[in-house]
Amino acid sequence: MTSALAGLGACHVITAVGLGPARRRGRLVLGIGGTATVMVAAFPQPVSGNSVAHTVAASVAFIALGSWPALAARRGAGAPLLAWPCSVASTVALLGLVVWFAAELHGGERGLAERATAGAQALWPLAVVVTTRRALSRVLVP
Description:
This protein has 142 residues and is mostly helical.
């Protein structure tokens, strides 16, 4: 789990650096989310009790990774998932999952909420990169 989180965080940072069509502030927030994900791996939860460092890093990661799409939106970007309506809708959905997870912290569906939130936040940058590359390749190739 630790290696997967560290690798995912590094991928988010690399994506933030390389996703040129996205607005700079969205890329910055994605990079912060990636760095916080690496910190989640660096400060794992203990077998019993709670790690404050892990909780803070996870909170920063979840909020940053949920909010970056709206901040990365660019009018006329030529990439469908970077378009304003889609970016805002994805932010609403991703932050909605964060709210669900927070509501389940002491509930019976905590694990499901955490996995759904983390999974969606892990896959959204990949979807943005794939669709952006496809859209831009159609523009560049006559």
